[in-house]
Amino acid sequence: MKPGFGIEEEFLLVDLDSRRVVAEPAAGALTACHEALGQYFSQEMYKSQIEVASPVFGDWLQAQDFVCSARQRLSSSLATYGLGIYAAGSHPSGNWQAQQPAPGEHYHQLFEDYQQVARQSLVCGLHIHVGVAPGYDRIRLINQLLPWLPLLLVLSTSSPFWEGQLTGYRSYRRVLCNEWPRMGLPERLLDWTDYEHYLDLLQRTGARPEFDCWWAIRPSRRYPTVELRIADGCPRLADGLCIALLFHQMVTHCLETRSEDVQLTREMQWVTQENLWRAMRHGRDGRFIDPLSHAPLSAQAWLLQLQTQFAVAPDHIDHALHILTSGTSADVQLATYDRALARGLTQERALCDVIDEQLTHSAMSAL
User: Fold this and answer.
1) 0.90 cut: is pTM over it?
2) pLDDT tens-digit readout, 240-272
3) Could you tell me which SUPFAM superfamilies the record lists for this protein (predicted)?
4) Domain 5-363 has CATH 3.30.2350.10
5) Domain extents for the chain?
């Protein structure tokens, strides 16, 4: 029996007229969202940021139906207030200085503890949970998956702009994430015992009892899952579902083959860190390091290797290949921006074209 899974999507609330991230949406707008989605809706760090956390799915039709319906219901509820959802990793002209923290002690403490790093985190991610049965060491499982994560980031890249400027990165969100403690790649840990020792050491030496690890992949402390956190938010629904499908298949394969003896060597850690930087910087155009042979390879060749390594069915890889050949969300945004400039539009107007396009992608409920 395949493990259950869940999908969490973060969105920014954008004024459809000004195209700005709203600093403080009308209370009625958030109430309408809650009424539309109930327990699956929550607010994130800023008043302008929301999250939809799905129920546990047993199959992909359930996931597709829920995510499509959730976006549709959010868009319908917010339209009354002149707002739309923005699912990309970053908003091209988002102004984090103008944002208001969400209420609640948890977020107050985050801003107090992490200061500037927290304040500038006006970004959105896609998180995927996959269930792991008792008795399987989740740290050993993560060690098997870790070297392949930069490729999943490549597929999701959607944050090439920041504060009105081209960043030169396909995923500037991950650059910002790496400024947080415990939000990059996981520490090199042998097994669950090693992980518990790591947590104990930090708590004994001054970390808050409720401190957390927000690694690119982590064992959830709330659920018996491994949680993928590396991915940028995906404006195009099909892209996000594709990444979730791939990650679910990767975890399922590891659980079914019970190949827990894979060790994360120092070299593998070095290669993964380098591939992560190349994915952030160049996206699908990067030249990567083969996790197995250390030979150079393209993103497309790496994807085909992942298909073999994790026994991914051909029809489950098709959309990922389409992303790599036709362009990620970041590539689409950059192309839209360049076309607008070529038509003689100002930089500000060109960014508006990008925002309009991504608002449309984010609101579309059809795949």
Assistant:
1) yes
2) 999 999 999 999 999 999 876 677 888 999 999
3) Glutamine synthetase/guanido kinase
4) no
5) 5-363
